Amino acid sequence: MITNQRLTKSGCGKDVRHFEFEALSSVIEYQVGDVLEVLPSQNAAAVDAFIKRCDLNPDLFITVQPRGIENILPDSLKNVSRLPIRLKKFVELTMDVASASPRHYFFEVMSFFATAQHEKERLQYFASPEGRDDLYQYNQKERRTVLEVLEDFPSVQLPFEWLVQLVPPLKTRAFSISSSLSAHPGQVHLTVSVVSWVTPFKRKRMGLCSTWLAGLDPQERVCIPVWFHKSSLPSPPPSLPLILIGPGTGCAPFRAFVEERAVQNQSSSIGPVMFFFGCRNEENDFLYRDFWLSHAQGCGVLSEDKGGGFYVAFSRDQPHKVYVQHKMQEESQRLWNLLSTGAAVYVAGSSTKMPADVLSCLEDIIAKEGGVTRETAVRWLGALERAGNYHVEAWS
């Protein structure tokens, strides 16, 4: 990590960060629209507490071997798979002890190892069909962690072999890449909302990966294990007209798109780009404000001179709420002009109502500006999607 910058105003209730990473390997390869998977580090105190609670020796060396696939491992990995690793390091890298909630089977197995009768009975109840609703309230709804559950049942002492199988694996977190490799050689940027929420019983929860990244100091040059992957947003050719809709952190991949188009614009002609962005307040969470406005001026990628445009919906800056679909309605004629000349539509952001609202809005615009029925507009957008020109990247 070389940059950790807060994009939202302090005290506004949202913490969105811009992170920049520099590759340690000589070459990295990715395209705009790709995603970066990050393996987070766990809280050291939580890992130590888990090891102490489970009465494990952190300095014990263990070997881990994949079961049943020994014969298909390449020779280069066969020896590596048998290398010993310290138990504490194994827990840190593979077992999610203080973020993920255990599965139903975890409680069933715990009931066999409980030595206190009242704990055994409660665990047996949780594991039974009658106790399913109460288990949901206790476990999933509160997002209790493995460590918290174990601390609630102190008489349970699970062998390490069982813990390895039962504790949820530490998983990578996927983020849309918000940079163009052409604009930032050897770097990759992310736009990340730091996740936090309060449970029904008023416990404050924090997202493991986003909180860890936000707490890192770039001066310490912390190494981050990452993997590059394709997403549902393919990299568009330079001449393809684009309609981009990305409220909130949904703007991340489109920052990469605009950077890429700006580089392409220096040597070739590019297609027009219309971008619809949305946030709550102009003062609090207008992410990358200067970046968008600079590219909307003169002959920039988002300029009207280039046939595109940049439009912002501030949902809370007036008595009535204004969302991206309202701005799209205001620009319905220009949207239709781009659509009718072969533009591709890209939508990114929250998976709640936004993607469906945007689709409905586009159906209205096509029906109105194209002079067709709503049913015809629905079929028109369906054909656009089948042709590979309607893409959605949504996350919860």
From TrEMBL:
Cofactor annotation? FAD
Which stretches make up the FAD-binding FR-type domain?
1-241
Q: Does the keyword Flavoprotein apply?
A: yes
Q: Which domain of life is it from?
A: Eukaryota
Question: Pfam family example for this protein?
Answer: NAD_binding_1
Looking up Gene3D superfamilies in the UniProt record yields: NADPH-cytochrome p450 Reductase, Chain A, domain 3 (1.20.990.10), Nucleotide-binding domain of ferredoxin-NADP reductase (FNR) module (3.40.50.80), Translation factors (2.40.30.10)
Instruction: Name the gene behind this protein.
Output: LOC104601624
Keyword annotations from UniProtKB, A to Z:
Cytoplasm, FAD, Flavoprotein, FMN, NADP, Oxidoreductase
The protein's matches in PANTHER family, at most eight in alphabetical order, are given as: NADPH-DEPENDENT DIFLAVIN OXIDOREDUCTASE 1, NITRIC OXIDE SYNTHASE-RELATED
Q: Which InterPro entries match?
A: CysJ-like_FAD-binding, FAD-bd_FR_type, Flavoprot_Pyr_Nucl_cyt_Rdtase, FNR_nucleotide-bd, NADPH_Cyt_P450_Rdtase_alpha, OxRdtase_FAD/NAD-bd, Riboflavin_synthase-like_b-brl
Query: Which PROSITE patterns does the annotation name?
Result: FAD_FR
Alphabetical list of SUPFAM superfamilies matching this protein: Ferredoxin reductase-like, C-terminal NADP-linked domain, Riboflavin synthase domain-like
Name of the molecule in the record = NADPH-dependent diflavin oxidoreductase 1 isoform X3
NADP in keyword set: yes
Give an example GO molecular function: oxidoreductase activity
